[in-house]
Design a protein that fits this description.
Shape of chain A: flat
Largest sheet of chain B: 10 strands, mixed
Order of helices and strands of chain A: HHEHE
CATH topology of one domain in chain A: Histone, subunit A
Oligomer: heterodimer
Number of helices of chain B: 16
Number of domains of chain B: 3
Number of strands of chain A: 2
Number of strands of chain B: 18
Shape of chain B: elongated
Distance between the termini of chain A: 39 Å
Chain lengths: 95, 487
């Protein structure tokens, strides 16, 4: 086994996903297939090759430091799941 | 804490100092960066993390971070990229923070601090760029928290020291110095109450002589330099008590309560976090060329220690004065502006360290809020230096009058008060001196027997009679002569 059910549970927790036992097994075997498939890459000799971070050649893509008009608050709040006239509301966060 | 024994344990302290960069717009979006605006008015689809939006890097955030790196002697990383730090929190709309994990923009560097025992260089590990989160507002037992995303996406630099500090004093001195530096560089306003500058502190203890590090505790949410010092002092005390009692310390995050002066454990579970960093695919990598660095170098402002050296070498001021004047860029600039108008540099320094500083302290003001222009203060100083007014009259009467009427010329105020008209000429000054000495024949005898301190008393009497208008230098000479004649 390339990946255990415990590892799937950990990843699901980090992604805040709730999975049933069947879903866990389904997920496990599907992730396992991906890992087996990716293993083919290990056959390539990558000694002395710099890791590739980005696949495009784009470099230094900057924006000038200019402040521009913002999104209308009412419009923005309308897209939130729960709001009042000023804020986005979330279940209380206790620190 | 008085009962921490530094002969048994040595504290090992590392700081993570976050500075909000004073750019016009956010690091990856064009929303303005402003404090104290109505909630959720400085937002955009990018800031809110809506699907399909793309971040684009603000070039000034990069410039500002390089400036800081150059100021502390860091190596600027030539090839960099951003990483995603994944976690869920309501004030982080995308579910990840864009930061630099593998390739921080600046590596190494050091900041020199002054300690009671002498100067010390505090080494830095790195400086990286990242975005700030929004703010969660909690209202008592209200079942909701309210989220304001105005701050989300503000450019931050996180400056991470080596675990090379060994006392609360060092931490206090370092944050003070960093705050001064970011203000000189003009990259952050350093306002800790508003959260523009914040620090997380890692503290652990080890037995003196040991090299292995003890279990560390991270203290978050400190909004003043004084509180950073207090939190470290408390932590040293708490950890040493625990260790002496044979207790096991846990690696955890704690908060500092400014009211009680104590730290409290928070969210132990979250130290289990796995941030799953990976390179941010939505942002192009950076390449910082030597030419770019040279360009920023050529535009660097005078740094605090360079400013201090200039005061000593060019203005020939004592070290004490130089240190005081270089304490803030605004004070240094104000001094230099006055010095361009009057030549008496030591007198300027005395005025700033004396009456001006007292006025600022009494009114809880910064030098930038001081009402008098450089011209006005130069006029006052010139009136004293030319012997037109006594220092006493200038500092106790003219100075407050100028402050209550900052637009009026100091010379006009002097004329209105009639001080120059009342000023005694040479003959009347003689008469007043003789009069004073006649009134105190016994004191004059004592003076001649060696009680030279009485001179001040005679002078004071004349000053009172002339309502402070006599030229103190001339009075001093005439008084000495008059006393000599009575021997």
């Amino acid at each position: 086994m390339k990946i255990s059910t415990e590892e799937i549970e950990k990843i699901a927790h980090l992604a805040r996903l709730e999975l049933s036992n069947e879903q866990k097994e389904e997920m496990r075997s599907s992730v396992e297939k991906v890992l087996v498939w990716m293993e083919a890459l290990n056959e390539v000799d990558t000694d002395g090759i710099e890791p590739l971070v980005h696949i495009t050649e784009a470099l230094n893509n900057f924006r000038p430091d200019e402040a521009k008009p913002t999104l209308d608050r009412t419009k923005a709040l309308n897209l939130g799941p729960d709001t009042n006239d000023q804020y986005f509301k979330v279940p209380q966060v206790i620190e | 804490m008085s009962n921490f024994d530094s002969t048994i344990f040595e504290p090992v302290i590392g700081l993570e100092i976050h500075a909000q960069l004073q750019t016009n717009s956010k690091i990856f979006a064009s929303d303005p960066v402003l404090f104290g605006q109505d909630p959720n008015t400085l937002i955009s689809p990018i800031t809110l993390g809506h699907p399909g939006t793309l971040p684009k890097l603000n070039i000034n955030a990069v410039n500002f971070a390089i400036k800081m790196g150059l100021a502390i002697g860091s190596e600027i990383t030539s090839k960099q990229y951003f990483d995603r730090k994944n976690y869920f929190y309501p004030d982080l709309p995308k579910g990840y923070q864009i930061t630099q994990d593998k390739t921080p923009i600046c590596m190494g560097g050091a900041v020199k601090v002054r300690l009671k025992a002498g100067p010390k260089e505090i080494p830095f590990h790195h400086i990286h760029l990242e975005e700030d989160a929004g703010k969660s507002i909690h209202e008592g037992d209200n079942p909701y928290s309210f989220i304001d995303f105005n701050r989300a996406g503000t450019a931050l630099i996180e400056m991470v020291t080596e675990p090379a500090l060994h006392s609360a004093e060092e931490a206090f001195a370092l944050v003070t110095e960093v705050r001064k530096l970011v203000r000189y560089l003009g990259i952050c306003d350093g306002n800790m109450e508003e959260g523009s500058l914040r620090a997380d502190v890692n503290v652990s203890l080890r037995k003196v002589g040991e090299t292995k590090l003890g279990t560390k505790v991270e203290i978050k949410n400190m909004n003043s330099i004084r509180n950073i010092q207090r939190a470290i002092e408390y932590e040293c005390f708490r950890q040493s008590e625990a260790l002496l009692n044979g207790e096991q310390l846990v690696q955890e995050t704690r908060t500092f309560d400014a009211h009680t002066g104590k730290t409290h454990s928070m969210r132990v579970k979250e130290t289990m976090n796995d941030y799953r960093y990976f390179p941010e695919p939505d942002l192009a990598p950076l390449e910082i060329t030597e030419k770019w660095i040279a360009e920023i170098k050529s535009k660097m402002p005078l740094l605090p220690w360079e400013q201090e050296a200039e005061f000593i070498n060019t203005y020939h001021l004592p070290e004490y004065d130089a240190h005081f004047l270089a304490e803030s860029k605004e004070m240094a600039d104000y001094f230099k502006e006055i010095a361009s108008k009057t030549k008496a540099v030591k007198a300027i320094s005395n005025w700033l360290m004396g009456p001006v500083k007292s006025y600022l302290n009494d009114n809880h003001l910064e030098i930038s809020q001081f009402p008098l222009s450089a011209d006005r203060l130069a006029e006052i100083i010139d009136l004293v230096e030319s012997g037109t007014l006594s220092h006493n009259l200038a500092s106790h009467q003219l100075f407050p009058l100028c402050l209550s009427n900052p637009t009026e010329n100091a010379i006009q105020i002097v004329e209105k008060q009639g001080w120059l008209a009342n000023k005694p000429d040479e003959d009347s000054l003689h008469t007043i001196i003789e009069d004073t000495l006649n009134n105190f024949p016994d004191k004059v005898k004592e003076y001649h027997k060696g009680k030279k301190g009485l001179l001040a008393m005679f002078m004071g009497d004349v000053m009172k009679k002339t309502k402070g208008t006599a030229d103190p230098k001339r009075l001093n000479q005439l008084m000495a002569e008059a006393l000599e004649n009575r021997k």
